[in-house]
Amino acid sequence: MKFYVESVSKCAQRLGTLSEIDAKPSVCIKTPAVMLHTQGGQIPHITHEVFKLVSRDPQILQIPLAGMHTFKEAMQYYEGTISNFIGCKDSLTCLTLQDPCNITKQGHNSTLKVPIWTKNGKVYYDAKSYMDVVESFKPDIYFLLSDGDTNISSSEKRISKSVNNTVSFYKECLERHRKSESLAKSFVIAPVVGGYKHLAREKFIKSILGDVKDVGGFLIDGLHNNGPEAEFLEFAEIEPVVRGILNKLPTDKLRVIQGCWNPVNVINLVEMGVDLFDSSYCHILTERSAAMTFAIEPTDQTDTYEINLRDAKYLDDFQPILTGCNCTTCTKYSRAYIHHLLSVHELLGPILVMIHNVYHYLRFFEKIRNCVKSNTLQVLQVSITEQFRNHQKVK
User: Fold this and answer.
1) Beta bridge partner(s), residue 35
2) Strand locations in 111-248 (E)
3) Which of 74, 108, 222, 259 could join 193 in a cystine, given CB atoms 3.0 to 4.6 angstroms apart?
4) Is the dihedral angle over the CA atoms 270, 197, 222, 106 positive or is it negative?
5) Do 160 and 188 meet the contact criterion of CB atoms below 8 Å apart?
C-alpha cells in the first residue's frame, strides 16, 4: 500500500490517495477521509450487511484492540486476516490500540507497558505482546504501540515518560515489523507524542526521523484521553501543537488523528493538512440520541445543527430527520417514530439514528474533498462554524 499526496505543503489542506493495495488492487481511498469506527469488529448498532444500505464504497475499518482483545487467542489459530475474521474481506482494516469513544483512564501506565481496558478488565501490552497480536491479525494498516496518555493538564514528568516509552516502542515494533513476513505488506503508522509541550514533541520527532523508511504515516497522539471530551476541545488550544508537529514531519507521509472531533474542528484540521480521521463522533452522538442535521450543501433544507430525538417536541413530528437526506432512515421513517423507539428503548432506535449519522458524516467528508479540490474549503468552514455557534447559543 502507498500514499500519494497531490501537494507537498508543510501545513495546508491537501488531497491524497491510498492505493496499490496488493490484496485489494481495485480499492483506492481518497483523502481527506474517515475510518469507520468499530467495536468488536462491528460498527456500533450497524451490522456489515446493514452498512451496505449506507454505502457500498470501499472503506477503512478502525479496529481498536481494546474491543478485539477477547479474540486474541482465536486469531492465533486463524489462518486468515482480521478482515476475513470479522466478515469484511473487501474492506481495509486499521488496527489501533485505544477506542476513541471510551475515555482512557489516566495514571495506569508503567515503564514500557501500556494498559487497555477490555470487557475483562485492564490488560497491559508491551512491544512484544502487541506485535504478536498485530502479526496474528494481519491488518492492512496498523499503529505502532504508543504511550499517548497525556492531555493539556499533563505534568512534564508524565510527558517525559510518554516520550521515552514511545521511542522504545517505536524502535522495537519497527524492528519486529521488518523481520515479519506476515506484515511485509502492512502500512505502518507511527505515533507522535509529547502532550502540549513543543520541546517534548520536537525531541520525539528528532529521535525517530532518521528511521522512517518503512513508515507510511504519522498519528498525532496525546492531545486528549479519548471519549466525548474530544468533541468539545477548543481548537485554539490544539492548533499550535498540531501546527508544530506538521511543520516537522515529512510532507509525503499520511497524517492521522483520532478522536470524536466535531465538524468545525475536522475542517480546521483538514485545512492544516490532516488526512485521516475516524467516525467515533457518529457513535458519541447516537449514544445521546442526537442526529446530525447541519447543512452540507447550500440547498440543504435545515435550520438546526443537530437534534436530540428523545426531546418530547418530536412526539408528533412526522418529518424525516433531515428533509432531502437520501439515507434509509430519512427516506422511510419519521422523527416521531424514531422518538417512540428511543423512548421505549427499542433496539431499532439507535440503529436508525446511527445509519443517518454515518451517512451524513460520509457525505460531509465527500464535500470536504470536493471543496479542497475546488479551493472553496473556507466557504464550507464559515458555514459549518456559523451553524455550530448558533447551536451552542440555543443550548
Assistant:
1) 278
2) 114-118, 121-125, 141-143, 187-192, 217-220
3) 222
4) negative
5) no
Report helix, strand or coil for 303. Answer: coil
Cell of 99: 477506542
pLDDT in tens, 123-139: 999 999 999 999 999 99
**286, 348 Cβ separation under 8 angstroms:** no
Question: How far from chain centre, in Å, is Cα 21?
Answer: 20
Give 195's DSSP letter. Answer: T
> Using only C-alpha atoms, what is the Rg of the chain?
20
> Model confidence over 282-307: pLDDT tens digits?
999 999 999 999 999 988 888 899 99
Q: β-strand 2-5 against 16-19: which pairing, if any?
A: antiparallel
Backbone angles phi, psi at 325, to 5 degrees: -70, 140
Q: What is the dihedral of CA 160, 94, 365, 261, to 10 degrees?
A: -30
Structure-block grid coordinates of residue 19: 492505493
> What confidence tens digit (pLDDT) does each residue in 152-210 have?
999 999 999 999 999 999 999 999 999 999 999 999 999 999 999 999 999 999 999 98
Element (H, E) at 270: helix 263-272
Least confident of 117-121, 272-276, 293-297, 325-329: 117-121
- Among 25, 37, 34, residue whose Cα is nearest residue 1: 25
Cell numbers of 331, please?
Answer: 427516506
Confidence (pTM) = 0.95
Nearest to 196, CA basis, from 257, 240, 166: 240
Please give the angle made by the CA atoms of 382, 386 and 388, to the nearest 5 degrees.
120
Give the cell for residue 315: 412526539
Burial class (CB in 10 A: 0-12, 13-18, 19+), 118: middle
> In this structure, how many other beta carbons lie within 10 angstroms of the beta carbon of residue 90?
12
Q: Are 204 and 175 in contact (CB under 8 A)?
A: no
Are the C-beta atoms of 275 and 32 separated by less than 8 Å?
Answer: yes
